[in-house]
Amino acid sequence: MTAKIQIQGLSKSFGRKVVLDRLDLEVRAGESLVVIGGSGVGKSVLIKCVLGLLEPDSGSVRIDGVEVVGLPAAEREKINRKFGMLFQGGALFDSLRVWENVAFGLIAGRGLDRAEAKRVAIGKLVQVGLGAEVGELYPAELSGGMQKRVGLARAIAAEPEIIFFDEPTTGLDPIMGDVINNLIIKCVRDLGATALSITHDMASVRKIADRVAMLYHGKIIWIGETATIDRSDNAFVDQFIHGRAEGPIHMEVRAG
């Protein structure tokens, strides 16, 4: 299967802290790949390097075979038009109405007139289970689950080829988390998109992932089909997916 995203030898450090250490990862066209790992292992840094929000120290990131590390801004912008992003905290603009949030990239990035952008935005809100009337509200008037759905509507507004999901169910109760997972599956399938997600929520992993990769100490230490994760024969993966304190992964805990 063709690689939509191909990462080779990716390294990124902050001072003396090595976050990504010659990391290799491939995301196939049309698949949903989820990267798991504990807090602070570099999952968000990985996505930011792919998006071009961070410049890696070394290594290669190819999108549809095109090297994007070091790409001039104008060329990078063309690549970024393939992307949609659901941010962990929603990242909605408080001063804009819901439909304006969904349409923001269409107006600011694509030059769509407001009337057409609003029509598209309302359609995307309906697609994620929100009525047209929600478009006239402000983010502060919405529950956490509704804000997450608005974020998803914005992520798919331009019908991207690749969608990134950053901890999509964080802060949601289990039922609303499952609603969001179902919407992610539906939206990705409807678009025929490729999805790269990062999370530590195993319920979400089992629901949305075709394949799972585990990041630890800057490297991908295991990758496989979601159905095989419970028999990975990898002690790090086994400890993580079962949430055990004892095992090869040592969390830093300071005494009070």
Give the SSE map.
Blueprint: E1 3-14, E2 17-28, E3 32-36, H1 43-51, E4 58-63, E5 66-67, H2 73-80, E6 83-86, H3 98-108, H4 114-127, H5 144-156, E7 162-166, H6 174-191, E8 194-198, H7 202-208, E9 211-216, E10 219-225, H8 235-242
Parallel strand pairs: 3-8, 3-9, 6-7, 7-8
Antiparallel strand pairs: 1-2, 1-4, 4-5, 9-10
Helix pairs in contact: 3-4, 3-5, 4-5, 5-6, 6-7
Keywords:
single chain; about 260 residues; alpha/beta; Rossmann fold; six-stranded mixed β-sheet; four-stranded antiparallel β-sheet; 8 helices; 10 strands; globular
What would you say this structure looks like, in words?
The protein has a domain at 1-81 and 196-245: Rossmann fold (3-Layer(aba) Sandwich). 34% of the residues lie in helices and 25% in strands. It has helices at 43-51, 73-80, 98-108, 114-127, 144-156, 174-191, 202-208, 235-242; strands at 3-14, 17-28, 32-36, 58-63, 66-67, 83-86, 162-166, 194-198, 211-216, 219-225. The protein has a 6-stranded mixed sheet, with helices on both faces. The chain has a 4-stranded antiparallel sheet with strand order 2-1-4-5, with helices on one face. A hairpin with a 2-residue loop joins β1 (3-14) and β2 (17-28). α3 packs parallel to α5 (144-156) and α6 packs parallel to α7 (202-208). The longest helix has 18 residues, at 174-191.
